[in-house]
Amino acid sequence: MQRLVKKESRLPDLKNSYPNYHPSLLLRNGHVNTIFTSLTRKVEGVTFSRERIKTHDGDFIDLDFIKNKNPKIAILCHGLEGSSSSKYILGTSKLLTQNGFDICAMNYRFCSGHINSTPQLYHSGYTIDLNSVVQHVLKDYEEIHLIGFSLGGNLVLKYVGDHKFTLSKKIKSTSAISVPMELHSASLKMLRFQNLPYTKRFLKTLFEKLKQKHEQFPLIFDLTYVDKVKNVLDFDEYYTGPLNGFTGAVDYYTQCSSKQFLHQIAIPTLIINAQDDPFISKECFPSLSEIGNKNITTFYPKYGGHVGFYRKQNICWDEEIILQFLNSLI
Fold first, then answer.
1. What is the average per-residue pLDDT within 80-87?
2. Chain mean position to CA 216
3. 23 near 315, Cβ under 8 Å?
4. pTM across the whole model
5. 176 close to 259: Cβ distance less than 8 angstroms
6. DSSP readout, 179-217?
7. Which residue ranges form the domains of the chain, and what is each CATH number?
């Protein structure tokens, strides 16, 4: 097990050196900020080159790179039903590329536009594929920085916190944005009426993928329960959980929530969660004293929505904080 390295928290330095998020009046609503940033933001000038790597079980993952021969690389992990083309991935890629980082934008299984060859699906705690990506880039870089958004935030925190894998010393930091680190309570918040549009959007693409996987593996992907699925919690109960070796949704959430591993993280880690995030429950805002780990820096701004944080000049506040956090490690 990796020994916990005690370091002074960088929270006071960052708070004093960079202003809090103060959006316009229009964006002081979690739903507005979430939707506005996702639908209207345009990120231009980002060109990826794709590489396909093999997984431990004979499947594949598609990775999108920006390589400028920098010694540092950021591995970016998207959220539920996202991809390397998600606005927050593009925006972060552009800003970090302009500031001395190469980029590896990970596409989870069946998120790159291509159906995978095995029954295995991605989920919030499936860190074995992330470890494969780390191993793939390891030889080419002096520093690796992990950055995850939403589901990807839980993924990277669990990866560096649960000690399932021996982490390379080249992994220098982790950043998690809009992260549902306590999955059960976050899934219950998603049941609220005002979150119905997001739920419908998630289920639409999840059902489409489920039907395609059923055509591949009809005995494994049983469509019997589709009519019973009304929300993401139901999908996890009937599909995500059982298909990944869990007894159901609660067992999946219990084993994969990253919050329980925060005290074990031994590298500098940044967590940003907006208090008006429509997806994030109150259990996802642990205090530094509750976490008990000086390696972790938290920002819980009043506004920001879910991976929103939109500002003027088409830049998002969380991306600037990520850059400042990474620069503070030098």
1. 96
2. 28
3. no
4. 0.93
5. no
6. ---SHHHHHHHTTSGGGHHHHHHHHHHHHHHHHHHHHH-
7. 11-182+259-328 (3.40.50.1820), 183-256 (no CATH)
CA distance 287 to 83: 31
Closest C-alpha among 52, 55, 48 to residue 90? 48
How much is the average pLDDT of 74-92? 97
Q: What is the end-to-end Cα distance of the chain in Å, rounded?
A: 26
Question: And the tokens for 95?
Answer: 């800003």
From start to end of the chain, where are the E strands? 49-54, 60-66, 72-77, 102-107, 143-149, 171-177, 269-272, 296-299
Residue 66's contacts (CB-CB under 8 Å, 6 or more residues apart) are 46, 47, 48, 49, 93, 97, 102, 103
How many Å apart are CA 180 and CA 176, to the nearest integer?
A: 10
Instruction: Name the pLDDT band for 314 (thresholds 50, 70, 90).
Output: confident
> Which residues have C-beta within 8 Å of that of residue 300, sequence separation ≥ 6?
272, 273, 274, 275, 285
Instruction: Centre a 10 Å sphere on the Cβ of residue 119 and count the other Cβ atoms it contains.
Output: 15
